[in-house]
Amino acid sequence: MRKRLRYYFSDKRYLTLAVLAFFVLIDVLLLVFTPYEIHDLVVKYRIPLMWLLVCLLAAMFAVCLRIVTILNTKIEAITQQNEHPTDEPEKYNFYDEKGELRLSARPETVYYLEAADNYVVIHYLSGGKMDKIMIRNSLKNLEWRFRNLGLVRCHRSYIVNLSRVQLLRRQENEVFLDFGDDRIPSIPVSKSYGASVMDHFTANTSN
Fold first, then answer.
1. Confidence band for 49, pLDDT divided at 50, 70 and 90
2. Whether the Cβ atoms of residue 135 and residue 109 lie closer than 8 Å to each other
3. Can you say whether the dihedral through the CA atoms of 133, 150, 6, 158 is positive or negative?
4. How many CA atoms lie within 13 A of 101 on its CB side?
5. pTM above 0.90, yes or no
6. From CA 95, how far away is CA 104, in angstroms rounded?
């Protein structure tokens, strides 16, 4: 239960929805169960309170609509994964937060994904040269979408295609993933993702 709550409240959308729901509850309680001491004050400002309630409900509706859109994208991802259950899909299809396809690339051409505020930068190989595209989405959504498909979260700001990683390098107290290409920087591995990356990396190298 704690893990589930931690997951929901780590997502700003769910946290915003919870805060709005809290204010709606407080507003309803003030309108319906008004303490006698502040009864006159609430009656005086009843109309503004009602408009506030309407605005809060509208905001909750907008947030819910946004969450439903994200969930539809995740459902589409599950459907696609069921159609291609292997660990090496024919294509990596990257959608933005509205569910629109922004990039479709062969797995061997995708190297890593990088967080950039409310966007994700996808670094991939095109025509023998490294290229990149920025899509509006979160790294968390893409991590969930491509779970068990070769793209692994290794850092708060990075997801890597482990099939393109040439070596795992430890330098002092830090761990880096190298692609064996001077055009591509080494990607850091944070301690919180170290164990899972090591499991994926050793599993890939053993296959």
1. low
2. no
3. negative
4. 8
5. no
6. 9
